[in-house]
Request: fold
Amino acid sequence: MSHQHEDKGLFDDPRVVTWILRVFYVICAALVLADFIVHRHIYTSLEKIPAFYAIYGFVACVLLVFAAKGLRNILMRKEDYYDPEVGQNLKTKEDDQ
Amino acid sequence: MWITNLPPFVVFFVFALFAPVLKGRLRVLLLLAPVWGGLNLAMTAADSGGVTWQFTDLILDLYYIDRLSLLFGYLFHIAAFIALIYSLHVKDSVQQVSGLLYAGSALGAVFAGDMLTVFIFWELLAVTSAFLIWARRTPEAIRAANRYVVIQVLSGVLMLTGVIMLYQQTGTLRLAYIGLEGTAAWLIFIALGIKCAFPFFHTWLTDAYPLATPTGTLYLSAFTTKVAIYLLARTFPGEPLLIYIGAAMTCFPIFYAVIENDLRKVLAYSLINQLGFMVCGIGVGTALALNGAVAHAFNDVIFKGLLFMTMGAVLTRVGHVNGSDLGGLYKTMPRTTVFCLIGAASISAFPLFSGFVSKSMVMAALLEQEQIIVWLMLLFASAGVFHHAGIKIPFFAFFAHDSGLRPKEAPLNMQLAMAIGATLCILIGVHPEWLYSLLPWENDYSPYDMTHTLTQLQILFFSALAFVWLNKQGLYPPELRSVNLDVEWLYRRLLPSSGRRMVNSLVSARSSFRRNARIIADQFARRSTPMPTGTVTILTRRMAWVFIALMLLVVGSLVL
Reply:
């Protein structure tokens, strides 16, 4: 999975990443196509929308991330907001080693 | 050799006694606790005679067995077995002892036949588990453990009050269906709700779990909340309110999880999200839904445990689990990476992984009941959980940008524990009938039909597509060192600061009173020195005292 002897890992190579993404896009497309071929049980009228689950998954995640980014404006505080010493000893070793 | 009908907690408590003595390689012997306990359980399960304990005129039912308690019993033995292997290298015997006592208490609560026994183990769970957080020994962990204990014990007090009230009303302590009617039922419901991390009661979990030791968090994620789920399934099945509470629990934590930096805290939020699915299933209350809820509890202990184990391994090797400072660890921790990916696939409910076979039961039950809005919320949460637990955790820890960290692979015993968890995730995913045969209610459900598999794959792949697209566009929020406000702000900021303000105003009132009193006293003191001489002066002074006394009498009579 990784090259132990050198510092560069497999996923540092942009060509590998590009290929992984290409395969991923093809699978996505195949899943949408399958929606039109495979007979699907319909439980609710919403599911009659073609590729309903694909659209819902994508839109849900994009909305989720935008909403969470918006929440950061309200909720985010400095790391030491509650405990003054947090963040200073970031690299201390664990006790139970 | 076998002591028949031995309550399962006894085995763990006995081993906890010996744990401090077992040092070095001898610690392996601790593994006998879940093995012996599990065999004992399997052999006595058939004849559930039960063990009672007479306490004055109260009879406590220490060992009550049916299919529901048996399922959780097996689960807790597996969880304890994995956790003990994971902690074999830990030299701190506090963790070994409290881990065993904690697992034992969970078993005690699950096999309890009456509410008072449940309460005893409910409080034992609180106290024994807190030591797993204290054992981290950093100032912030100690403070978090203190807060944790206060909230957990509060839950116990509410439960005891409810149990006593219920006993006065019904005259029985038997653990059975209660239903939400009357104050007693509500008190017990809220007590369960606190440990189940209902919204607004959830911050003890996200506060304390990320601060425990690596082993501690693994234990914590397995027991407390699952005991609460078990008791909810026993006492409040089919309570419609639970459907909405559960739906809220699935949705709100994922927003936090997206922007949280501490990866164990991300997992803590996603633990609440998974509990939401179970609570929802218990709320629906049909055989399919209840089976789904307890099956999901079973799977969640294993896959969430696996994810916590991988993050615990990172914590052990690197010293922190902040997403902002990790990345590229797959190069030196390849096995932990693979285990993490298996855990991520399971929690996201990929087909052939354990989450899929139980989560789909809850979803199918919701569709059967035509709860479309709740179903859409859970579908949103399913996409969201893949987004943060399925992608974010492995991506930011093991891939993403190269942080330059080159930690060693996790200790061998940790790898072994993770391997067992990962194997179980896949085995249950591939052969769900093994888990289904243990489920308490009659139901024939098959998860692998074309519709389920296809739709689940669509939702997962397009959630991933959203992640890829947002990252490519630079829209994905970066991991920032930060803390996000949650309900805990009320008791960690508002309460202390308003309390401090009150104390300050009281202190300043006291000091101003003292100042004034001293001024008055000084007046008298100055008059007394130098000692007045002459009869007239002394007379005047006495007259003054008499005058003051008279005035006080007048004022007093007027007031009264």
Remarks:
- Chain B is about 70% helix and 0% strand.
